[in-house]
Amino acid sequence: MTDGSAPHGQGIDLEKDPYGLQAKAERRTAGVFGGRREGDRIVRRLIELGIALSAERNTDRLLEMILLEAKQIYNADGGTLYLTTDDTRGLAFKIMRNDTLRVSLGGTTGKEIPFPPVQLYRDDGSPNSNNVASAVLHRRRSVNIEDAYVAEDFDFSGTKKFDESTGYRSQSFLTVPMINTGDEVIGVLQLINARDHRGKTVSFDRKMQPLIEALTSQAAVALENSMLISEQRRLWDSLIEMLAAAIDDKSPYTGGHCQRVPVITKLLVDAACKSDDGIFRDFDLTDDQWYELHVAAWLHDCGKVTTPEYVVDKASKLETIYNRIHEVRTRFEVLRRDAEIECLKAQLDGKDKAEAEAEFEEKCRRLEEDFEFVAVSNVGGEFMDDEDIERLKTIGATTWTRTFDKTLGLSPMEQTHLKSTMPPPAPHVEPLFGDLPEHRVGKYNHGELYNLSIARGTLTSEERETINDHIVVTIKMLEQLPFPKKMRRVPEYAGGHHEKMDGTGYPRGLVKAEMSLPARVMAIADIFEALTAADRPYKKAKTISESLRIMSFMCKDNHIDPDLFDLFLRSGVWKEYADQYLEPHQIDDVVIEDFLPKPEQLTKVAV
């Protein structure tokens, strides 16, 4: 214990007195109260406590501070702090302390209080005045009881039963309402069994009562501020989670991505905080920094709100709002019908029936083969080489005759677009599929041949650029938000998950040294979630070993951070995530040594 001249907090046993309340009381008693007027003592005490209360942001710790300080003032054996329930129909137990019974429940203890809320109203809707805590709330004034066993105004039968079962003797009670700046009673503070300097239970000194009332007034304001901050944070959290869910819901094929990436991110960062090896030896996050990371992880893809759905959902090469393979198939149907009509006309003109039908069957066979090739190409599952693309061009050059007006039944926007690319009037001979002027819409080329010729996957270069632009939009959106100083790195964390350690990523082409560790973590989290996701339209869900093998190649190519990938493997983050989020068939046998980065890839740290 420190003397009155010691700096605040030095020498305090934090385990026994976590908030330094006893130390402060003894310091004040020894160095301040002696010879001072009672008013000065009260003012100084309230000022010091007001400062302490206003500085505390954790609601549980604040509640404990309020109750423990009140107990200290009166040297009370026990106390309870109640807060009104959300429906304002009851008083919920939040903190309970009793020195004699060694009871410590609620708050930071993590131990639930097993008592139901005190009901503020009877069944008929009238105020409950039998319970002293309820009565104090309704009357909005304190109640000081010298001995509960002889009190006539309130029902203490429950207290007596409790005493009977524990051997305790509840005697003096001081119950005070907590009134906030809105003139609302938000809680009740109740102290039990004041003790004199010899430890004997006495009544609560009424001269000291104004001090407790002043304390509860200050506490109510501090608690209101703390709760307001907590409510604002809950609102903010709900908004960012709602935005992430909306982005996921926008596309049935990326559902859950924005919600799963934060899980992997936090698991890996937590592993980094716990690790004492390599570059993680001195790495740790404060509560504020954890929250900063939480916000960044949830908002890492917020720019996707501007990405067209058909691009995000493009599961085949000819897909826009719908899969245009149906239009191409219809043209093949027309060609087959034309071939059949030509066969019948030839027979009417006297051509041998068998010869005509043989020619017809041969045309049908070629059409079926060509369409099958086009349809398979549309799926985008196989790599298209130059020979395949040349075959597409040959098939596409086949002509058919359009006999209906192409400008009828269009939306106003389509009509505006066609004014500059007016198609020839019908009838008109056109390629089976091709790249027509009307296929150019803004920066996009919807040309059928152009899209079918995509070498790998289903996206054109313009569409891939649009997908990549979501991170640019993400950064732009986040940099426009007035984040407080302690959250200023949210845009950097969220905007770095497509960067690569060698500087070939996007949008800024950063190298490892230019990226923070959390940003590098998010890159790994984003990749692992994408590889293992079972809801993508363009690929099957990969197993754990397949995903880790791909990531090991990315590590060798210096695309992801080797130190973090090594930690990702050794810490078992991949397994913890897989056990919770992946399908059973995806979880196969993994030998992490097969994927670990080589020692020379890891950052050397001086011992």
Count of alpha/pi helices: 20
User: First CA to last CA: what distance?
Assistant: 38 Å
The average pLDDT is 85
Integer-rounded radius of gyration = 37 Å
Total count of domains: 3
How is the biggest beta sheet arranged?
8 strands, antiparallel
Strand content: 5-15%
Number of strands: 12
According to CATH, the homologous superfamily of the largest domain is GAF domain
| Name of the CATH class of the largest domain | Alpha Beta
Overview of this protein structure:
This protein has 607 residues and is of the alpha+beta class. The chain has helices at 21-33, 38-55, 59-74, 132-139, 157-166, 209-250, 257-274, 287-298, 309-312, 325-348, 353-379, 386-396, 412-419, 448-452, 461-479, 490-495, 517-532, 544-556, 562-570, 573-581, and strands at residues 76-84, 90-98, 103-106, 118-119, 143-145, 173-179, 185-195, 201-202, 399-402, 428-431, 440-441, 444-445. The strands form three sheets. Strands 1, 2, 3, 4, 5, 6, 7 and 8 form an eight-stranded antiparallel beta sheet that branches.
